[in-house]
Design brief:
single chain; mainly alpha; 0% strand
């Protein structure tokens, strides 16, 4: 895995509205592998904060979230922004 992919995985893991299943589908890593990546690439305090933040969060699991909750897409994911005049 290159550094760009690693950075993107970490960024997606921090995003509230990006479910773990999307990370799995894009990078073919399991939830347990994601936890190991986060543990090995974050400071201990940051890892603990992340685990506390995502534990039990409905938006991080597709099955637990409501159908009305959308997925956040950052500019690097191809979101087109139209300019209104």
């Amino acid at each position: 895995m290159d550094e760009e992919d690693l950075n993107r995985i970490i960024e997606m893991a921090w995003e509230d509205r990006t479910p773990f299943e999307i990370i799995h589908s894009q990078f073919d890593i399991t939830h347990d592998e994601l936890i190991k990546i986060m543990r090995n690439n974050l400071k201990s305090s940051s890892f603990k904060l992340w685990r506390k933040r995502v534990t039990g969060r409905k938006t991080k699991h597709i099955i637990k979230r409501g159908h009305l909750i959308g997925r956040h897409r950052c500019d690097r994911q191809g979101k087109l922004v139209s300019k209104r005049r």
